[in-house]
Amino acid sequence: MKTQVLVTGANGQLGKTIKKMASKHEDVEFVLVSKDQLDITDENSINSFFEKYNFLYCVNCAAYTNVDQAEKNKNLAFQVNAYAVKNLAISCKKYGVVLIHISTDFVFEGTKNQPYSEEDITNPINTYGASKLEGENHIREALEKYFIIRTSWLYSEFGNNFVSTMLRLAEKNEEISVVNDQFGCPTNAFDLANVILEIISKKNSNFGLYHFSNTGKTSWYDFAKSIFQFNDIKIRVRAIPSDQYTTLAKRPRYSILNTSKIERILNLEIKPWEEYFVKE
């Protein structure tokens, strides 16, 4: 009998990545849903959906991820990133489902100069980070069997992300400006999806909070240069400080995640972020 797994946020980049990888896991039946198919802000809809299946896992990839627009739409950001997560957590407890939830490096304020561990104090500096942290807290209050995975600078071949934005800007501009004083680590959605699927396939019971990203450190400026170099795009990239690039939401200056816990407990070998931007 196949393991039934619910994946929310099916139209997002992580959801689409999981869908692409699903065929390699013949022992798992993935039920991938978009917000049109399942409204996770509606507790009754979630319960009705859970009653139709025998889910062992729920992978919550659904999120309001537009960091700047979250400052204008605070209620919506909290509705999706916090209250809907609470609904999922309550239903997961009711139906005995393990929740795998994706969170963010933006729960930290970014004032450290060394990678953030799972034990570090959270202090988000924007609405997106605050809403995601509240979602985490709802899970911890409702459930014992959960995986919260914080990740950073996620990109993929799907949807809107920093890589696709840089490639789009390069089509219309001869020069772009990118901030060089915000540091983090890009994460390939394929690697994150692989960790999620590994947890499911091995029915891992080491529940709790984890950090996952690819390894290394870079700035948005250096990341942009790597993207253009890998794609053989000739464009001038000008480094600027954050105070010359005004955004609605504040960003952490430093949000590198310490991944030693997930490497140790899940026995992972994590690739450096640069590996995806080197030609064979």
Report on the structure:
The chain is an alpha/beta fold and 280 residues long. The protein has one domain: 3-Layer(aba) Sandwich (Rossmann fold). 36% of the residues lie in helices and 19% in strands. The chain has nine helices and twelve strands. It has helices spanning 13-21, 43-52, 69-72, 74-95, 127-142, 162-172, 189-201, 220-230, 260-265; strands spanning 3-8, 28-33, 55-60, 98-104, 146-151, 154-155, 175-179, 183-184, 187-188, 208-211, 218-219, 236-240. It has a six-stranded parallel β-sheet with strand order 2-1-3-4-5-10, sandwiched between helices. α5 links the parallel β4 (98-104) and β5 (146-151). α1 crosses α7. The longest helix is centred in the first third of the chain and has 22 residues, at 74-95. It is globular. The model has no long low-confidence stretch (mean pLDDT 96).
Strand order of the largest sheet: 2-1-3-4-5-10
Q: Quick one: biggest sheet? A: 6 strands, parallel
CATH architecture: 3-Layer(aba) Sandwich
What is the first-to-last residue Cα distance?
41 Å
Regarding CATH, which class? Answer: Alpha Beta
Mean pLDDT: 96
Total tally of structural domains: 1
Count of DSSP H/I helices: 9
Task: Kindly name the structural category.
Answer: alpha/beta
The sequence of SSEs as H and E is EHEHEHHEHEEHEEEHEEHEH
Low-confidence stretches: none
Proportion in β-strands: 15-25%
Spatial shape: globular
Binned, the helix content reads 25-40%
Rg from alpha-carbon coordinates: 19 Å
CATH superfamily descriptor: NAD(P)-binding Rossmann-like Domain
CATH third-tier fold name: Rossmann fold
Tally of extended strands? 12
